[in-house]
């Protein structure tokens, strides 16, 4: 899997902890860190989401203080579905049901060991195209493209 990771200053500690695990994980073929010290959460979220939208990355992980700001910003990029998840049910649903390609987390909300436990599961999750949610994801995509 080709991943992008990014965090502004208020997410760098959790980002670095996750990055260390991801670099050692055989499921990760490439890991691009877009973080820069002066980067704002909107700038970094847009950049990471654009990598996914353009097909240069499969998924992205964004870290800020709560994970909410990064999700809002990433969701502004056409074709991107970003979700904030700090628990297993939300994490699984975000990918399996809603086909979210961007995982957002908050450094002030979740400890690094718990975040890694979720990311470890997230790497194996896939969208269930046969579920009842799949047509709804299509409905969202159609609206976004102005077809509705």
From TrEMBL:
Keyword Cell membrane: no
Top-level division of the source organism's lineage: Bacteria
Key words, A-Z: Isomerase
One GO MF term attached to the UniProt entry: isomerase activity
InterPro entries: RpiB_LacA_LacB, RpiB_LacA_LacB_sf, SPI_LacAB/RpiB
Similarity section: Belongs to the LacAB/RpiB family.
Protein name as it appears in the record: RpiB/LacA/LacB family sugar-phosphate isomerase
Organism: Eikenella glucosivorans
